[in-house]
Amino acid sequence: MQPKCPFCKSRNNKKLRQLTYNCVFFCHNCRLGFQYPLLKKNSIKKYYKESIYPQVWGDHTGSFGEMKKITYQWIFKHLGKGRGEKLLDIGTGYGFALLEAKRKGYQPVGIEPSPELSKIASKAHGVKVINDFFENVKFPIESFHLVSMFDSIEHMLNPQASLKKAAALVKPGGFLVITTPDINSLSAKLFYKYWFHLKNEHYYYFNKEILKNLLLKNGFTVKISMGQKRPLTLKYIENHFRIYPIPFLSITFRHLLSLVPTKIKNKIFTIYDGNLFMVAQKSVKIA
After folding, report:
1. Residue 34 to residue 16: CA distance in whole angstroms
2. Pick from 71, 86, 112, 207: most CB atoms within 10 A?
3. How many degrees, rounded to 5, is the angle at CA 70 between CA 143 and CA 212?
4. If you write DSSP's letter for every residue of 189-242 in order, what string do you get?
5. Pairing of strands 13-18, 86-90
């Protein structure tokens, strides 16, 4: 028997890909992608505690860091400048979103479950980063002008509860910003079960309609819904295919890159790679 979709409860789904510990299924009814069975909380905590993310993706001061800076410069062009408003970034990673937020005039705070990344982000950018899972951290309701979930909602075991909690932290008239892989994107359809966003650490794969409906239920109106422009290098793609191999494509790409000079491999270019960028505004309370 097929597992139930965790969102619409339909069993009209199919197995998309076998991962290391479980499978990714695709729901034909609501078009959600989801892992089944989900990992236990203890396994996830162990993953983040022992995460080798910095060793895998390289020095945050190198080309990887430059790509992240360009990413958040693009995002904050759409969000505009702050005037001292408080901003919360959930799943802040290396903290480049906090760096750009501070540069734009916000008062940023980050939450990051990885102890190593938390230390790097705080030390490198001089920002406050709380080392914990979002579900464990408490803030007063409606205490932030902007709450961001940049490439983090897909990592959450209960994204509906996490989104509800994040929504409660936003002041009326404030914003909730999400970036996440879009399972209805062109890249998802082209690569299908070999889509490069299908990873052990991604538990859910959303689309525009699902996210829009979740935001509406929590009192938000979607203001921006579009593909995210992302900076990449050939070296980064090569590394990605090494960590997340795709039959034939990974080997072919590696052989082709062996003919490319290092300087070109490290050159940054921008593409739409299947990530979704969504900005929603919280309704203002009418007395």
Report:
1. 9
2. 112
3. 50
4. HHHGGG-TT--TT--EEB-HHHHHHHHHHTTEEEEEEEEEEEEE-HHHHHHHHH
5. unpaired
Please write the tens of the pLDDT for every residue from 185-239. Answer: 999 999 999 999 999 889 999 999 999 999 999 999 999 999 999 999 998 888 8
Q: Helix (H, G, I), strand (E, B), or coil: what is residue 278?
A: strand
Instruction: Kindly indicate the confidence band of residue 52, based on its pLDDT and cuts at 50, 70 and 90.
Output: low
Domains of the chain, start order: 1-38 (no CATH), 40-233+268-282 (3.40.50.150)
Structure confidence at residue 40 as a pLDDT band (50, 70, 90): confident
Cα dihedral across residues 92, 97, 102, 107: positive or negative: negative
The Cα 61–Cα 19 span in angstroms is 31
Cβ proximity of 167 and 15 under 8 Å: no
pLDDT at 184: 97
- Residue count of the chain: 287
The angle that helices 96-103 and 115-125 make with each other, rounded to 10 degrees, is 30
For residues 90 and 166, the answer to whether their CB atoms sit within 8 Å is yes
pLDDT band at 156 (very low <50, low <70, confident <90, very high): very high
